Amino acid sequence: MRAPWRVAVVGGGIAGLAAAVRLRDRAPAGTDITVYEQSGALGGKLRTGELAGQPVEFGAESFLMRDPAGGESVAVALVRRLGLADRIVHPTVGQAALVVDGELRPIPGGTLVGVPGNLEKVATVARPAADADTDGGGPLLGPGEDVPVGALVRARLGDEVVDRLVDPMLGGVYAGRADDLSLVTTMPALARAARVEHTLVGAVRAAQAAAPRAPGAPVFGTLAGGLSTLVEAAAAASGATVRRDATVRELTPAGGGWRLTVGPTRDPELVDVDAVVLAVPARAAARLLGGIAPEAAAGVGGLDYASVALVTLALPEPRLPELSGFLVPSAEGLLVKAATFFTTKWGHLRRPDGLALVRASVGRYGEERQVQRTDEDLSATVHRELSAVLGAPLPAPVGGHVQRWGGSLPQYTPGHADRVAAARAALRAAHPTLVLAGAGYDGVGIPVCVRSGQTAAEEIITALGGSGR
Description:
- Helices cover 33% and strands 23% of the residues.
- It has helices spanning 14-26, 74-81, 149-157, 159-174, 183-186, 188-194, 200-210, 228-238, 282-289, 294-301, 342-345, 368-371, 375-390, 416-430, 439-442, 446-463; strands spanning 6-10, 32-36, 48-51, 54-57, 63-64, 88-89, 96-100, 103-106, 111-112, 115-116, 220-223, 241-243, 248-254, 257-262, 269-273, 275-278, 304-316, 325-327, 336-341, 355-362, 399-411, 434-436.
- The chain has a seven-stranded mixed sheet. A five-stranded parallel sheet has the order 12-2-1-16-22. A three-stranded antiparallel sheet has the order 5-11-6, covered by helices on one side.
- It starts with 5 loop residues before the first strand and ends in a 6-residue tail after the last helix.
């Protein structure tokens, strides 16, 4: 009789936890699952804290409700699997703004991550280049081609559309710049449409039509009580042994499986397992892969990351616009690149005493020194810049919190998807029981990370010779 499988999940972020839950659901009964998390907390960039007596997100704040085909997202499916569906809440204010020439202007509708599907709608914030997006007689992208988002949009619609719309949108999500980021990885639906359509506006419309959304259907959701409840529920449902403050320093092949070297150099623990889900950032993965899968290590080790800081202020009865928040183009010269009016956007957080929570995101790729300012300096600068954008001094905060996420947001340059595919193919050929998962490979956002972890779990089940339950 075969002994139960032993599977290690290295990395306790949402990708790793989703892998652990899928293994528990689909692997043979009795499978031993252990999650190794280097830090003292699970969840990665999902972290709910408390400020002024109420929960607030110090990391990701929401998840997409629908998948690219228009169905329910895998994040929502996981929430249901964990019995948390009754906690899903949606924004009560959805309109956001852009800072243009120092003033707030509503973000126009009909765009795809800022790329317009209707040029007239974006005229309030940016002037598209006249007659630039003409039909050249063939698709915008060739088969397998990838380009920087900024290069494509500048060539078709001009600089203002990139600088005032697309760049701040991508900056809000990736802390990167449109001129550097891969179209295929950051806007896969648009890239697919661009391989067929002859104009950029036509490609945007085709991508939007391919993912229909019922009128009024919510785009985003979160959980009452905070996203850390998702983390806790996933860890519990996985039935995994969770090892916090447990750094996996080395992986070596051993007896048809793997030997993990865990813990401090002077007193390491050696653990033998049958398979490993490696759900850690790309550079950490490359270090572990270097001696056993150099081709895969080279394929993922070059990925760079941006650092950001999230500054949350508790403000007594401020006068805030009825907006979910705003984005800031880099040309505006502000430290703040995005802000969320939490207690306006999320109705379930509104307080009868009028206390408001406002969170600002600071830090763009290549500006790490800005994120290294002191907490006091960051908070004071954010307070001052928010006051300037809103046109009136904000009241002094009664509480605040600075959350730094160093090296946290992947910067996907053109060709990223092909490099990852090649790395995975090389790893699969040499070591099928060692699988990569997470944002560094498949993209940011809770649904993408959940799917990445679930796919990794299925690959492990197949590699170990099981069809799953």
